[in-house]
């Protein structure tokens, strides 16, 4: 069973690499056909520009600036989402009170939040706020669904044996809520990067990736635009992988007796 | 020891009456078998005594402060935990060796590192029984505990259960009179 699963996984990974290579070649061919660096640059030019950027100080500073704010917003939202979900599960009134708020956050366009935030606050920590707002309802909803789906028979068993709260959380709630939380994190990690960078592009906080993207647009520097986009994708994917790996390790350690 | 007294206990679910003015004395320090045909409220009675349901009317005395343990009709194991962790969950003071020895008595071999989800039905049942027996308890509820075990395993498991329950308060729900006798049930209550 395990070997079949490993086989499937490596086959999937192989297909993905093959597909990526295919589309890179198509991109290269189209860029040669278009022959206009402003409209479409080739992947080789993007790599070349990226190679130049990584030796500059502002490149690393911009990554650090945006990473800190976007991930900060994500972590704050994850913590708040868990706390609110637990409170909503425990107290019906809190759940009822939060329901319209979460619905509003989910429905209001991210651009409206960005503009409102720019009116109310400075743009310096805009990405944190926007990333927080995008992640909060996803984590809240997923964790609440997870808590609600905890096996009632196990909770009754815990009640009869008078298991202490800590042991109930660790061995009954955490294993059953974790897949929901993990799924929420997977969805919201991509979301927080997209919305965070969008906020930076509009708000242009000094030293952010969003500001670099906006400048690339203003100067029609398409290779830099693509290079920064690639950086965002790489940083976002790396953080997602690392975070999910860390989550898996923490969950594994918590469940181990 | 004072018996556990049930007096005119009534319990209904929606429109359906499950227990109608049920009165009985359950002696402490011995095994009592509860027998009744299906749907007569045996499990409901156990759930009430376990504190998982409230009575509609009537009263129960003698249960105050008793530490409970149970084998439910379902195994109710933590699927991701191995048998040792499942047993230790209810009694962390047990050592690995103590649990392993008890598992061997129940003919549970070479499964101590497997997650409960990977165990067979019979193995899961025995782990659930062992968890209840090795927990610290004053009263043990056994709701059709040997269901799904083959004859030979059942005999061995019953022998261990019987030994660990000697002179302790046990309530056994069963449909099988021979099972009640084998468990040395001194009292038999049927309705």
Automatic annotation (TrEMBL), chain A:
<keyword id="KW-0813">Transport</keyword>
<feature type="transmembrane region" description="Helical">
    <location>
        <begin position="171"/>
        <end position="191"/>
    </location>
</feature>
<dbReference type="GO" id="GO:0005886">
    <property type="term" value="C:plasma membrane"/>
</dbReference>
<dbReference type="InterPro" id="IPR000515">
    <property type="entry name" value="MetI-like"/>
</dbReference>
<feature type="domain" description="ABC transmembrane type-1">
    <location>
        <begin position="59"/>
        <end position="243"/>
    </location>
</feature>
<feature type="transmembrane region" description="Helical">
    <location>
        <begin position="101"/>
        <end position="121"/>
    </location>
</feature>
<dbReference type="Pfam" id="PF00528">
    <property type="entry name" value="BPD_transp_1"/>
</dbReference>
<keyword id="KW-0472">Membrane</keyword>
<protein>
    <submittedName>
        <fullName>NitT/TauT family transport system permease protein</fullName>
    </submittedName>
</protein>
<dbReference type="InterPro" id="IPR035906">
    <property type="entry name" value="MetI-like_sf"/>
</dbReference>
<feature type="transmembrane region" description="Helical">
    <location>
        <begin position="127"/>
        <end position="150"/>
    </location>
</feature>
<feature type="transmembrane region" description="Helical">
    <location>
        <begin position="59"/>
        <end position="89"/>
    </location>
</feature>
<feature type="transmembrane region" description="Helical">
    <location>
        <begin position="225"/>
        <end position="247"/>
    </location>
</feature>
<keyword id="KW-1133">Transmembrane helix</keyword>
<comment type="similarity">
    <text>Belongs to the binding-protein-dependent transport system permease family.</text>
</comment>
<keyword id="KW-1003">Cell membrane</keyword>
<dbReference type="GO" id="GO:0055085">
    <property type="term" value="P:transmembrane transport"/>
</dbReference>
<keyword id="KW-0812">Transmembrane</keyword>
Automatic annotation (TrEMBL), chain B:
<feature type="domain" description="ABC transporter">
    <location>
        <begin position="4"/>
        <end position="189"/>
    </location>
</feature>
<dbReference type="InterPro" id="IPR017871">
    <property type="entry name" value="ABC_transporter-like_CS"/>
</dbReference>
<dbReference type="InterPro" id="IPR027417">
    <property type="entry name" value="P-loop_NTPase"/>
</dbReference>
<dbReference type="GO" id="GO:0005524">
    <property type="term" value="F:ATP binding"/>
</dbReference>
<keyword id="KW-0813">Transport</keyword>
<dbReference type="InterPro" id="IPR003593">
    <property type="entry name" value="AAA+_ATPase"/>
</dbReference>
<dbReference type="GO" id="GO:0016887">
    <property type="term" value="F:ATP hydrolysis activity"/>
</dbReference>
<protein>
    <submittedName>
        <fullName>NitT/TauT family transport system ATP-binding protein</fullName>
    </submittedName>
</protein>
<dbReference type="InterPro" id="IPR003439">
    <property type="entry name" value="ABC_transporter-like_ATP-bd"/>
</dbReference>
<keyword id="KW-0067">ATP-binding</keyword>
<dbReference type="Pfam" id="PF00005">
    <property type="entry name" value="ABC_tran"/>
</dbReference>
<dbReference type="InterPro" id="IPR050166">
    <property type="entry name" value="ABC_transporter_ATP-bind"/>
</dbReference>
<keyword id="KW-0547">Nucleotide-binding</keyword>
